[in-house]
């Protein structure tokens, strides 16, 4: 990501935040990131480079909502 968004970490935290025992830990770790999904410029570079052709931008937005709720 040209903006420095830690895509893998956000995907991982967004999956783990659904587990009640680690929910606050995940949200705290996300909040401490210098760059998060809000920095996304929607350039599409992440989706172009994804070998699985995933809708990364959409996925990151969903994870952001979970991690900031």
UniProtKB/TrEMBL annotation:
InterPro entries: 4Fe4S_Fe-S-bd, 4Fe4S_Fe_S_CS
Pfam family, one: Fer4_17
The 4Fe-4S ferredoxin-type domain, residue ranges: 31-62
UniProt protein name: 4Fe-4S ferredoxin-type domain-containing protein
Organism of this sequence: marine sediment metagenome
């Amino acid at each position: 990501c040209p903006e420095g968004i830690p895509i893998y970490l956000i995907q991982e935290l967004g999956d783990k935040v659904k587990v009640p025992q680690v929910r606050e830990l995940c949200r705290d770790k996300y909040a401490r990131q210098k760059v998060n999904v809000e920095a996304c410029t929607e350039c599409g570079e992440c989706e172009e480079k994804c070998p699985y052709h995933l809708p990364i931008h959409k996925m990151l937005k969903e994870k952001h909502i979970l991690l900031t709720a």
